[in-house]
Amino acid sequence: MTKLSVNINKIATLRNSRGGDLPNVVQFAKDVQRFGAEGVTIHPRPDERHIRYQDAFDLKAEVYTEYNIEGNPIKKFMDMVLEIQPTQVTLVPDADDAITSNAGWDTIKHKDFLIDIITECKRNQIRTSIFVDPDLKQIEGAKATGTDRIELYTEAFAHQFGLGNSDSILPYTECAVLANSLGLGINAGHDLSLDNIKFFKDNIPGLLEVSIGHALISESLYLGIENVVNMYLNKLK
User: Fold this and answer.
1) Measured between alpha carbons, how far is 57 from 116 in angstroms, rounded to an integer?
2) H or E segment at 210?
3) Residue 145, exposed/middle/buried by CB under 10 A (0-12, 13-18, 19+)?
4) What per-residue string of b and e applies to 121-137 under the rule 16 or more CB within 10 Å gives b?
5) Residue 105 to residue 164: CA distance in whole angstroms
6) 43 is catalytic
7) pLDDT tens string for the chain (237 positions)?
8) Which of 38, 66, 70, 151 is catalytic?
9) Taking the model in full, what pTM does it have?
């Protein structure tokens, strides 16, 4: 079964909009695990506009499933990751002003940089994943970095699927087949939702984990967080 990791950035965004500590990020992480989520994902950015670096430290003691920290591996981010030692670090080439992640790595151009980062993570027993576009050359490039996994950037699929174009899955399936043959684990995330998650999962061989935040939190406004977590778990069986 594909694991569900809940990205809780939007909870931090809501908290920060009013100041104070409501909703409480740590309590929310504890609750989604209690409801069945198999991981918690956070994506701190340098300006801390949603998840704060302190949140990352506060969550360490409370995430007993898989703890996935995403982000651009600048020095501040890597210092935090190496101190916390989460289950997994997902490397994302975010621009400082990006509203959300909007591109995968050029694993060929940045090969040496990624090798250095991944080597340091592995030295600290942290599983590594690289955020990539569904491009076969980028999958091959990821393999050359020594990463444990890739995370397929699924925005293009989600957008086209919403327009009725089910063929948008094809490059993702091709990349998954290649990744499996190369011994790379496969994660996925970005704009996956209750509407598209089952189709995506059924067409991606070897899909190990999905990280879902924006859609899951939005759906929970209508359906309730415990119910939505379990709806995802059922679709991922």
Assistant:
1) 24
2) strand 207-212
3) buried
4) beeeebbbbbbbbbbee
5) 28
6) yes
7) 899 999 999 999 999 999 999 999 999 999 999 999 999 999 999 999 999 999 999 999 999 999 999 999 999 999 999 999 999 999 999 766 555 556 899 999 999 999 999 999 999 999 999 999 999 999 999 999 999 999 999 999 999 999 999 999 999 999 999 999 999 999 999 999 999 999 999 999 999 999 999 999 999 999 999 999 999 999 999
8) 70
9) 0.95
The one catalytic residue among 38, 43, 50, 66: 43
Q: What amino acid occupies position 107?
A: T
Q: Is 70 a catalytic residue?
A: yes
From the list 171, 157, 163, 160, the residue with the least C-alpha distance to 210 is 157
Transcribe 8-59 into DSSP letters: -HHHHHHHHHHSTTSS-HHHHHHHHHHTT-SEEEE---TT-SSS-HHHHHHH
Q: What DSSP string describes 96-144? A: TT-SS------TTTTHHHHHHHHHHHHHTT-EEEEEE-S-HHHHHHHHH
Separation of alpha carbons 149 and 127, rounded Å: 8
Catalytic residue of the set 38, 66, 151, 190: 190
Exposure b/e, 211-232, CB count within 10 A at least 16 = b: bbbbbbbebbeeeebeebbebb
Which residue type is seen at 122? Answer: K
Tokens of 177: 């087949």
